[in-house]
Structure formats: C-alpha cells, structure tokens
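Minutes, project check-in
Item: structure for the 309-residue chain
Input as provided by the requester:
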Amino acid sequence: GEEGDGVQWTFDSRHRVQTGEGVGEVKEEGGEEGDEIGGKKPEEEGALTEPINPIEADTGCGDLPEGLEMCLKLMLPGEVSRVRCAPRYAYATRNDAPPGIEPTSAVEFEVELFHFDREGHWQTMSFNQRFQMAERIKAKANDLFRAKKFGFSKARYARLIKLLNSTRDFESDEQLARMNALKVACSANLAACAIESKEYTEAVAWCDQVLETDPENIKASLRKGKALSLKGDYEEAVRALEKVTELAQGVIEAERKVEDAAEVVLRNLGVRARNEAKYMERQAREVERQTRRERRAAKVQRRRLREAG
C-alpha cells in the first residue's frame, strides 16, 4: 500500500477499497459459478495502469491466480479490493504472467467484482435441471483434462460424484440409470486424472469402483492395467490387460454378429424385393390380359349391334 493510507501490506493480504452490495444471481437451471471482474495494476513504478477489460472466469478451474480467486470469493458485486499475492499465489506456478511481471514476483492486484452467478441448490432442482447441471460440470471437467489441468479436472469430477451420490429421489429406473452412467464415466475419468498425477493406487481404486458396477467396461480395465503397470504390479497388470483383450474380442464378435445379421436382413430384403417384383409383374400381365379381353368383348358387342340394326 501507499505510505500514509493506514494499511500495512503483507503477502497474501486484502484491502477493501470500495464496499459492494448484493448477493449475486442464482440461475434457475443451476448454471456454473462464474465471476465477471475488472481491475488495474496499482500505480507504482514499473506497473501497468491501463484498465483491464472485464473478464468472465469460472472459480475452481485455474482461470485466475490462486490469490486473486481467494480474494474474489470474499467479495460482493460492486466491491473493489486490492490484494497482494506472494509469488506462489500469483504466477510462480503458472505460465500466463502478463508482460513485465516475473513469475517469481509478488503481485498486487486491484480488482472490481461486477457480478457473479451461483449454482442453484441441487436438492431443490427437477431431475432435468440436475442432469443438465451434471452434464455441464462433466463437460467442464473434460475441458480441464484436455488442457492438462488434472487437479482442477479431478476436483470437478469428484464434486459431481458427490452430488450424484446425494441423490435419492429418482422417479424411475431410467433416471437412476442415466445418473449411474454419469457416475461410471466420472469414476473412469478420475482414474485417468490419477494416472496423470502419478497416483496409481488411487487410479486402481477408481477403476475397481467402475468394474464393480460395470464389469465389462473396457476403458476402466485398460486404465487399471496401465496404472498397475506404472505402479510395478506387472502380474496384476497382465491380468487386467488380458481382460481388456477378452472384452475387446467380445466387442469384435458382437460387431461380426451384427454384420452377419445385417447381411441376412439385406439378403432377405433382396429376396422379398425380387418376389414382390415378380408379383407385380404377374399382376401387370393379368391386367393387360383382362384389358385385351374387355376390348374383344366390346368389339363383338359393337358388331352385333350393327347386325341387329
């Protein structure tokens, strides 16, 4: 802080410049939590002073430096705060430091929170609202995994499983099956996150959970084999991968059966089409013969009328 402002700055501290009001918006369908913020670097030697355009970010996804996100969680819409972050809470572990800021530097932000959206309460949502929210959380976790933000991805998958486990008021077996399918997918993806984080024992545990529910899940068996191999349990890894081979062979056989069945159907359709074509041809010939008979009968009738006249 500047001299004389009555604030003694220490690393990881926050100073409220302007008080905010309100509690944010709650989306009826239960949208992802997000913050729209703006701000500027403090006016000091070597710092940038241009206002930063408002940005929108999801919390818990690594979009912002950790210290800045911690500050935002304590703010209300309209509030302006200054937060000083030690390097480890700023850019020391990130690769997106703005030009002119060293990753090893402490950083002071001035940030204004314009508004934020909060998720609706899971237990008060309808099934469709819950399912839509679950799909959004899973999609975000998938994006984080593809971006190699495995810790943040893991947190999203784990949070979704916790929400799914808290659900008891299913109205049909179909609803239960849809939620269980999501849980299986998230558990398998948590195994992938654990493998990337070199937490192989945890990865095996997640795979076992999936296989307990879905013993023929190829993805879980494959990831279990990979985790066991990286862990050094080669005999167990071989057994898991043999299971993958067995399941894959079963899929191939199933595909062959489908192809054979399709071929039989097409062959039967071909026979049926040929039979129908022959039938239509016979019908056409019969119509033609009937037409000729009617013409002959009409000709005979006209001749008799002339003779009678």
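Outcome recorded: The longest strand covers residues 107-118.
No further action items on this chain.
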